[in-house]
Amino acid sequence: MKLRPAYDVLVISLSERIGFFLRRVPYRVLKQAHDLAKTGGVEFSIYDLEVHYLCGGDVIELAEAIVIAKRRGLSTEWHVWTAIDLAGYDTRHVASIADDPRRVVGGPDSARYRRRPDGLPRRTR
After folding, report:
1. CA separation (Å) from 101 to 81, 83, 89?
2. In whole angstroms, what is the distance from residue 73 CA to residue 99 CA?
3. From CA 104, how far away is CA 5, in angstroms rounded?
4. Rounded to an integer, what distance in angstroms lies between the CA atom of residue 60 and that of residue 30?
5. What's the distance, CA 48 to chain centroid?
6. Could you tell me whether strands 113-115 and 121-123 are parallel, antiparallel, or unpaired per DSSP bridges?
7. Tens digits of per-residue pLDDT, 35-66?
8. Rounded CA gap, 35 and 9, in Å?
9. SS3 sequence, the chain?
10. Can you tell me the mean pLDDT for 68-72?
11. Given CA atoms 54, 69, 45, 18 in this order, what sign does their dihedral have?
12. Cα 20 to the chain's mean position, in Å?
């Protein structure tokens, strides 16, 4: 049986957990994403995850994507991966196929857009 060191445990005070509750942020989801990233060897704060969740991002998928990117030797910069997630891309897919996460080709639903005669994109049904 392997013992975990005391510093490996995520400690959140009661007042911070009440703050999560008042902001309607699910603490267990953030803790699951934080633990997933921690076991994958990636370090980031639970408060970064909270901000990403409040912006509308999927924190568990983001943590999985950053772990995949680290295994592939790609950039694990927090702001790059959060921007990819908030732009609507599937971050796990990007992490598994991209050589450089800053160069993602095509939009999240680029098949639904056509060009107007003046060159601007027009959304089609």
Report:
1. 8, 10, 11
2. 9
3. 39
4. 8
5. 10
6. antiparallel
7. 999 999 998 888 999 999 999 999 999 999 99
8. 9
9. CCCCCHHHCCCCCHHHHHHHHHCCCCHHHHHHHHHHHHHCCCCCCHHHHHHHHHCCCCHHHHHHHHHHHHHHCCCCCHHHHHHHHHCCCCHHHHHHHCCCCCCCCCCCCHHHEEECCCCCEEECC
10. 90
11. positive
12. 19
What value, to the nearest 5°, has the Cα angle with vertex 91 and ends 87 and 96?
140
pLDDT at 75: 83
Residue 100's nearest CA partner among 75, 72, 81 is 75
Residue with tokens 């790059």: 80
Confidence category of residue 24, pLDDT binned at 50, 70, 90: very high
Burial class (CB in 10 A: 0-12, 13-18, 19+), 31: middle
Q: Write out pLDDT tens, residues 98-124.
A: 776 666 655 555 544 444 455 555 554
Q: Which residue has the tokens 């009440």?
A: 18
Cβ(65)–Cβ(91) below 8 Å: yes
